[in-house]
């Protein structure tokens, strides 16, 4: 049942995101960077549940479009950190709007109390499965990626860098 709900959610969200010219992977990248700007490409691939080589192609395209930039990590020359550019801000706002719309429609018929219960139960399941994940998986046991903001109903807060850019305009 969870797999079917996830598949349907992704299909619906993709149809809405397509209207603004964004793929679901690009949306995940932008929303995650809105919360954790300066994260590494490897962490971003893990958080977006995307193969690192596939993500590199996505990031290449997004960088060409002026949505983000990659900078070498000053402490490890093998690592690149990813930062949002100003052009990403209106797109993130649209992604949040689309997420709000899709979430409202998907959860129609559930009271606020039922929505909270659902979230609480899913968090328990996530915690249980995280603890059971085999040690060969890179992330799962030690570095929990927060639940998708699309489920929580919380928008990605502005990072310190975004707040500085806004105050300078």
Determine the fraction of residues in helical runs and give it as a percent range: 55-70%
What's the rounded overall pLDDT mean? 84
The CATH class is Mainly Alpha
- Architecture, CATH level 2? Orthogonal Bundle
Query: Quaternary state, please?
Result: single chain
Residue stretches low in confidence (pLDDT < 50, at least 5 long) are: 136-169
Structure description:
The chain contains eight helices and three strands, in the order ααβααββαααα. The C terminus is likely disordered. The protein has one domain: Orthogonal Bundle (Arc Repressor Mutant, subunit A), CATH 1.10.10. 60% of the residues lie in helices and 10% in strands. It starts with a helix and ends with a helix. It is globular, with a radius of gyration of 17 Å. The protein is mainly alpha-helical and 169 residues long. The protein has a three-stranded antiparallel beta sheet.
Structure summary:
With 169 residues, the protein is mainly α.
Topology readout:
Elements: H1 2-18, H2 24-35, E1 39-40, H3 41-47, H4 52-64, E2 68-73, E3 76-84, H5 88-106, H6 112-132, H7 149-152, H8 160-168
Antiparallel strand pairs: 1-3, 2-3
Helix pairs in contact: 1-5, 2-5
């Amino acid at each position: 049942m969870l797999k079917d709900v996830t598949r349907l959610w992704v299909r619906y969200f993709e149809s809405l995101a397509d209207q603004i010219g964004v793929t679901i992977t690009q949306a995940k990248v932008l929303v995650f960077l809105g919360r954790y700007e300066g994260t590494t490409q490897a962490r971003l691939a893990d958080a977006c549940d995307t193969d690192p080589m596939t993500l590199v192609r996505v990031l290449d395209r997004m960088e060409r479009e002026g949505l983000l930039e990659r900078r070498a990590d000053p402490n490890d020359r093998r690592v690149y950190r990813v930062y949002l550019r100003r052009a990403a801000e209106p797109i993130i706002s649209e992604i949040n709007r689309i997420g709000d719309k899709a979430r409202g429609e998907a959860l129609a018929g559930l009271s606020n109390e039922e929505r909270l219960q659902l979230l609480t139960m899913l968090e328990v399941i996530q915690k249980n499965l995280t603890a059971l994940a085999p040690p060969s998986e890179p992330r799962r046991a030690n570095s929990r990626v927060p639940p998708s903001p699309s489920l929580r109903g919380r928008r990605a807060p502005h990072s310190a860098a975004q707040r500085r850019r806004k105050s300078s305009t």
